[in-house]
Amino acid sequence: MPVTYIQAINQAMQEEMARDENVMLLGEDVGILGGAFKASEGLLERFGSERVLDTPISEALIVGAGVGLAIQGMRPILEMQFIDFIACGFDQIVNMAATLRYRHGGQTSCPIVIRGPCGAGVHGGVYHSQNPEAWFFHVPGLKVVAPATAHDAKGLLKAAIRDDDPVIYLEHKFLYRRIKEDLPEGDHVVPIGKAALRKEGRDLTVITYGSPVHAVMKAARDMASEVDIEVIDLRTLLPYDWKTIRESVTKTGKVLIIHEARLTGGIGGEIAARIAGDLFEYLDGPVMRLASKDTHNAFAGPMEEYIIPNQEKVTEAIRKLAAY
Amino acid sequence: MPVTYIQAINQAMQEEMARDENVMLLGEDVGILGGAFKASEGLLERFGSERVLDTPISEALIVGAGVGLAIQGMRPILEMQFIDFIACGFDQIVNMAATLRYRHGGQTSCPIVIRGPCGAGVHGGVYHSQNPEAWFFHVPGLKVVAPATAHDAKGLLKAAIRDDDPVIYLEHKFLYRRIKEDLPEGDHVVPIGKAALRKEGRDLTVITYGSPVHAVMKAARDMASEVDIEVIDLRTLLPYDWKTIRESVTKTGKVLIIHEARLTGGIGGEIAARIAGDLFEYLDGPVMRLASKDTHNAFAGPMEEYIIPNQEKVTEAIRKLAAY
Amino acid sequence: MTEQKERELYFWLRLIREFEDRVSTLDRQGKIQGGVYSGKGQEAVVVGVCHALRSDDWIFPLHRDLGAFLVKGADPNRLMAQIFGRRDGFSKGKDSFLHGGDFSNCIFGATSMLGSTLPVAAGTAYKFKIKQEDRVAIAFFGEGASSRGDVHEAMNFAGIYKLPVVFLCENNFYAYSTPNELQFAVEDVASRAVGYGFKGDVCSGNDLNEVMKAARKAIERARTGDGPTFLECKTYRYHGHSEHDRATYRSEEELITWESRDPIERWEVYLEKRKYDIAAIKEEVGEKVKKIVDDAVAFAEASPVPEGPEAMEDLYATPITEG
Amino acid sequence: MTEQKERELYFWLRLIREFEDRVSTLDRQGKIQGGVYSGKGQEAVVVGVCHALRSDDWIFPLHRDLGAFLVKGADPNRLMAQIFGRRDGFSKGKDSFLHGGDFSNCIFGATSMLGSTLPVAAGTAYKFKIKQEDRVAIAFFGEGASSRGDVHEAMNFAGIYKLPVVFLCENNFYAYSTPNELQFAVEDVASRAVGYGFKGDVCSGNDLNEVMKAARKAIERARTGDGPTFLECKTYRYHGHSEHDRATYRSEEELITWESRDPIERWEVYLEKRKYDIAAIKEEVGEKVKKIVDDAVAFAEASPVPEGPEAMEDLYATPITEG
Ligand SMILES: Cc1ncc(C[n+]2csc(CCOP(=O)(O)OP(=O)(O)O)c2C)c(N)n1
Ligand SMILES: Cc1ncc(C[n+]2csc(CCOP(=O)(O)OP(=O)(O)O)c2C)c(N)n1
Ligand SMILES: [Mg+2]
Ligand SMILES: [Mg+2]
Q1: Which numbered ligand comes closest to the C-alpha of D141?
Q2: CATH topology for A3-181?
Q3: Any domain includes D309
Q4: DSSP code of C305?
């Protein structure tokens, strides 16, 4: 039976909590309500209120308590009701969790997962549409993942829960109920650090992740007669899968990076710079980027469409690179 | 009489507070003590405790109260005792201050300056050596400046105080007392948004800012017989001065970006990507980058030297690009 | 109180209810795209507090305080345009609901991050103090928001400087689905005031007379230099957290109990006791507020939808154009 | 108390003082590169609290709690190596002073960000509770740190779940240069406990007997499921904020007053009253602690300075190597 992206998240938590009694979930309204988006529906009933915890509105506490649980052998999943609120727990993430192992000279690890709905396209306005990955991409000690499919949503969440390092897990709310897939049976884990080659192609490489993956795949299909596109879905952003990128770019010689986070300071800059620095001699054209415009995510429909890399802009950007 | 970098900061605050009674300073130990590094020495005595405020240890309050003062017509300077503590006021900066004007449809502005000692090279360890500019570089609505000379420290701080937008002012603690310059008489303001062409040259461009500017200038002098280097000191990071970069790169065709913040996700990625994207046809070599290694700033001397882009690494990187 | 004032208060209660009910209806009809957080049932709090203010006092409302906008003087037309995300809203469509304040009426627009307005209110109050202006800042927040660190930092600071600020907590017993017993271990959040060196006070938020009495005291205290007050009003929201929330986490009985304490009906009883012709008043005010809200909806619907490129405006007061 | 225990307590007081004095001396000699924050004058607090703990209880010390490391069981040699930034330190040189904890003795290493350990202590206590372990977590913090939002969030959470945690505030009347009257508007920070639904207690932090009594009560309360305590110990640091600080913001008289309440001298008076041969004890313990500290310095100096590439180690438990 096909499973939505958000059901996949729910399944991953259910299975991991059933598998390991030290896995638990903390967040606002994750228990009684089952989460603002119902990602944790049924967890309280199944695992009880000690392991599924409705916290007060205290994001710094959520992360900090998560670290305190982690050093005692627990594996807490920490939900931000919207990922935008992660700014309220920022210090606990970048200074407390990300440096925990380092400042202790390897005496401990920090198995926490911080997850929450990110992304635009649903009229969420300035504070319910953010894509915060770039902030954490700059912080050693963290891992950052951003699934684009139900398959990866489940497999990466299971991997993140089992990982001994702090993982920021960015689930795109636009995808929650818009995509549905049949998932593999059994213990389905997607390794952190490996990109997915969504489509092979010879003419140019598109590197993307999260919600835009679907627009890119559609463009690749629609434009198949014009141009043969290779599509890389990064899935893990930190550390990103350089091997897959390198192999693709050295083959195609042309590359376009697409993300929904805004352009300036987005992770596309780093990846483009790395390509331009290390693979300069393989390039047949400029490394192009398409991202949200450098502004806050405005509420009104036409402004949001103007800002985000929608289907039209994706197609146009690919066409432009192909024509180079 | 030559003035140190930190004296320049003090002068800027003194002069602006004397000029405009709405300018004030909030921070921990900025009054009675005159600041942990003495940046605000003499201010309490001269301007009184209402305008020079020793706050409790509450970074979110400092920034938030700053916004509250700003909407009432004040122009607060907000000190972080070390810039590392800015993570504790992160939400107030990126969500409250940076979006204030935007979410109010232009009804208000937000004239605050957030300043504090950043940077490595002084055995500060993990929490007293950070370079946080990349986090804010990704946030529209903010401006970010990072002076490298006493001249710019003074002129940019005065500009920042007079600016109607929130400005993050990054003062490099390594430079506090290590450099000394004669400053221009009178009302000396350095405009936000303009880079300084520190040295003209034909062979290659080095783009940098903050503490590494001095290592780059030394290298440029030392290597003058081998290679003619053009040196751009960005000074303002957001928005960065693309015109100066473009003119230089289209002339030299080779570029190296150097910053002390760590490589991955640093602002060098964005600038390199922009160059590789927009100026591809002018490039005679890969866009190179030199930055701190992707780790926390370790305490012990040899590790810190290993991490940061010191003189030796700067010289080596320039030599490598020149040889390309 | 004068009869005029008592009637005016009734008008505000009814206007808020009419306005919020209409917004809820429009939301059900799919005409509103952002989240809608109805304050229905809590009207006496915002009316009681805001009516006691001067026009140059500042308020810092949170997501459920639409009524505070109205009483403080915001134009209903623009407020409705704000909710529709149109160009005539306070945000010019850049955000919706209460994220755009109305500076001409000294109303601050919050971010979504609960509790983060309290430091801003404290900063504003600090300015009032040092410039010797006898103005007051009111920071509204739910009991849920009281758990945020920013709230603590702001209250502590306000205590040190005895700032002219009132911390106005609307304790409606739930933060989204989370009941108070999972939010704190005390009966009254206002019990925290002692730890900051100022007054705490608790009142029924459904009784306009009680709210007014407590609010007046707190505002007076602030205005005369006697420092902040943590004023907690116990109340209840009839609707779910947002219009999408069916609020199955609470009982039907609980809702019915609170509906029996409706702040508007209570005020009507009070007016009756004062021997006014309540039937006539009800009808007159009913027509008046309906007309205002009808007009507001018409205005909002006629207001232009912002165009795409407007998304790049209003980011900076002094933009730096690229060379 | 047994004589053995009373002597042991004296040993800890003296060891801490000897250790910290030596660190100060080494700092003056330029042998230490990082910041040094002496707790001299506050020894009775950490001794009184940590001595009452079991080895499997956890402590979360802040920057001035070097003594807590020692009493909780940290190896003085490794602690000195930590301060020197050497490979045998808890951080392996990656950071210095108290930023590296000693997990084998249930000691957590803080970040620099004051107050941020309190949520971590609360999380740890939550684990003790749900796993029905009768262990306790102690979070140390200065009165200055009490102004941070994290402290509030942690205390509120601990109150809700009656967690086995003690919030141990060392109120030494200054946060760096900032006196208490600029930090909060209350006499006792512990007065905040009521707002979180648990016990607050205040004691003299310079009187070991008082600290022990109060600490034992708080720890007992935590261990038996009666919830958290906010225990405030009034004390004083003799040195400046760090060794670089000449502390001109406070008066000579104030320092002298507090020196007259020295916690170690007080304990000596107590031992004398108990009719022990105090002169002999002093000499014996003096020699013993000197030897320990001498050895620690020798150990630290002999410990290797980490090499550059070690900076890349210990970032991840499961690093992902690049293809
Ligand atoms: C910092 C932060 N965390 C989470 C949320 C999501 N959220 C929005 S409203 C709400 C509940 C608010 O409860 P309360 O403060 O009691 O106000 P009420 O809705 O009851 O009026 C939550 C959790 C938020 N807006 N901000
Ligand atoms: C969040 C944060 N802000 C600022 C600082 C800088 N700082 C270090 S110690 C200190 C004073 C601490 O005072 P207190 O908590 O009373 O402890 P004490 O030093 O008196 O023992 C300050 C401001 C910090 N470490 N963390
Ligand atoms: Mg509530
Ligand atoms: Mg102190």
Answers
A1: 2
A2: Rossmann fold (3.40.50)
A3: no
A4: P
Question: How many structural domains are present in chain C?
Answer: 1
State the architecture of A196-322 in CATH terms: 3-Layer(aba) Sandwich (3.40)
Q: Of A104, A123, A128, A172, which one is the catalytic site residue?
A: A128
H or E element in which residue B208 lies? strand B204-208
CB contact set of A60 (below 8 Å; sequence gap of 6+): A88, A89, A91, A92, C149, D116, D119, D149, D150, D153
Pair D107, D68: CB distance under 8 Å: yes
Q: B200 C-alpha vs ligand 4 centroid, how far in Å?
A: 52
Of A60, A105, A111, the CB nearest to D314: A105
d(CA D269, CA C167): 50
Distance separating alpha carbons of residues D69 and D83, to the nearest angstrom = 12
Task: Give which of A91, A127, A131, A249 to mutate to test B binding, by max B Cβ within 10 Å.
Answer: A91
Name residues whose C-beta falls within 8 Å of residue A205's C-beta, 6 or more positions apart in sequence: A229, A230, A231, A232, A245, A248, A249, A251, A252, A254, A255, A256
Q: How far is C321 from B92, CA to CA, in rounded Å?
A: 26
What does the pLDDT look like over D16-56, one tens digit per residue?
Answer: 999 999 999 999 999 999 999 999 999 999 999 999 999 99
Length of chain D: 323
CB count in 10 Å sphere of residue B15: 18
Dihedral of CA atoms C255, C258, C262, C263 in degrees, nearest 10, equals: -130
Structural domain of C48? 3-303
Q: Is the pTM of this model over 0.95?
A: yes
Domain ranges of chain A: 3-181, 196-322
* A178-231 pLDDT, tens digit each: 999 999 999 999 999 999 999 999 999 999 999 999 999 999 999 999 999 999
Q: What is the CATH number of the domain that holds D127?
A: 3.40.50.970
Q: What's the gap in Å between C25 CA and the centre of ligand 3?
A: 22
Q: Is residue C91 part of a domain?
A: yes
- Does residue B186 contact residue B236 with C-beta atoms inside 8 Å? no
Nearest Cβ partner of C149 from B60, B72, B242?
B60
Q: Would you call A316 exposed, middle or buried from its count of C-beta atoms within 10 A (0-12, 13-18, 19+)?
A: middle
Geometric angle at alpha carbon A81, from A79 and A86, rounded to 5°: 75
Report the separation in Å between the CA atom of C151 and the middle of ligand 4, taken as the mean of its atom positions: 22
With beta carbons under 8 A apart, name residues in chain D contacting C189.
Answer: 195
Spatial separation of the C-alpha atoms in residues A136 and B188, rounded to whole Å = 38
Polymer length of chain A: 324
**Any atom of ligand 2 within 6 Å of the Cβ of D232:** no
Q: Is position D317 within any domain?
A: no
User: What tokens appear for A282 in the block?
Assistant: 């393989």
Residue among B80, B81, B86 to mutate when testing ligand 2 (max atoms within 8 A of CB) = B81
Contact D141, D167 (CB under 8 A): yes
pLDDT band at C323 (very low <50, low <70, confident <90, very high): low
Closest-CA distance, C192 to chain D, in angstroms, reads: 4
Residue in D60, D176, D182, D184 to alter for ligand 2 test, most ligand atoms within 8 A of Cβ: D176
- B250/B257 Cα distance (integer angstroms): 15
Residues in chain B within 8 Å Cβ distance of C306: none
**pLDDT tens column, A41-97:** 999 999 999 999 999 999 999 999 999 999 999 999 999 999 999 999 999 999 999
Q: Which helix (H) or strand (E) holds C254?
A: helix C252-259
DSSP string, A205-218: EEEE-STHHHHHHH
Q: For C55-68, give one letter per residue: b (16+ CB within 10 A) or e.
A: eebbbbbbbbbbbb
Contact C182, A53 (CB under 8 A): no
In a domain, C178, yes or no: yes
Does the annotation count A104 as an active-site position? Answer: no
